[in-house]
Amino acid sequence: MLKNRGRTPELLFQFLTRFSGSFILILLCAMLISLTWEAWPSIQKFGIGFLFSTEWDPVRGNFGALTTIVGTVLSTAIAMIIAVPLAIGVAIFLTELAPFSLRPIFGTAIELLAAIPSIIYGMWGLFSLAPILADHVQPWITEHFGFIPLFDGPPMGVGMFTAGLVLSIMILPFMASVIRDCFLMAPQVLKESAYGLGATTWEVVKDVVIPYSKRGVIGGLFLGLGRALGETMAVTFVIGNAHELSISLFDPANTIASTLANEFTEASDPLYLSALIELGLVLFMITFIILGLAEWWLNKSSPGGKSR
């Protein structure tokens, strides 16, 4: 009887943990099935051409996702190019260079920045950052680098460049906080051994801290990437929301998330609503594929491989 009483909590524990682990997979499948079901009218009418068409005409009932896909990928790429080196630099400063008395203050400030709602970033970007970019930054860039098509065009303040910049500011504290925690997990004895052998701070960071915490750092970067891909309100405020495919970063554009935020309540026609849901399905698949590839690459590059 004592043996059976001891096994009951163990069996209950195993059931709860297996159910919790399976719940994520069930939820993922349910979301995919629901989105596909709701988007089926649009999938049937436009087929694979939906992904490659730049047309978005609700009046005539013609819809394509290429402009929003390009806008989503490009704004996320700009954000990552700006935010990744800054986040790693902030994390190195907080763990290796900042005075010990100031580290908690800087760390708390970064965590508070990561908790600010995205709509606040969007309002700040529209009313404060965009005028500065339009009056000072974009004219200077156009004057000196206007021969590059990416930086040609009227300085309007809102557009792809501003959206990417606001996104980078949003994901920077989030990634810096995660990377800082990963750097702090590097064994102190290894760092002190390296310093004892005469290594500089840069050499300790490069040869000890970063290799030891590489998986966690990359995981933090991809968490930031996932947030940038699906960000809605901040981008909606500053990207201009135009269904146009332009090579200039200063021109208005849109993303999948901003299109859904702007037009979902206006979609009275069933096909229009179905096309918007198909956009959501496309965003779901883009995020799933990118994060899946990241996980595959991490498994492949780690010493333990799949045995991890």
TrEMBL record:
Q: Which UniProt keywords apply?
A: Cell membrane, Membrane, Phosphate transport, Transmembrane, Transmembrane helix, Transport
Q: Which GO terms describe its biological process?
A: phosphate ion transport
Q: Any idea where the ABC transmembrane type-1 domain is? A: 69-294
* Gene Ontology cellular-component annotations: plasma membrane
At the top level, the lineage of the source is Bacteria
Q: What is its membrane topology?
A: Multi-pass membrane protein
Signal peptide feature range: none
Compartments, record wording = Cell membrane
The protein's GO terms of the molecular function aspect are:
phosphate transmembrane transporter activity
Its transmembrane ranges are 21-43, 63-94, 106-134, 154-175, 216-239, 271-298
User: Per its database record, what is this protein's job?
Assistant: Part of the binding-protein-dependent transport system for phosphate; probably responsible for the translocation of the substrate across the membrane.
* Recorded family membership: Belongs to the binding-protein-dependent transport system permease family. CysTW subfamily.
Designated name of the protein: Phosphate transport system permease protein
Q: From which organism does this entry originate?
A: Dissulfuribacter thermophilus
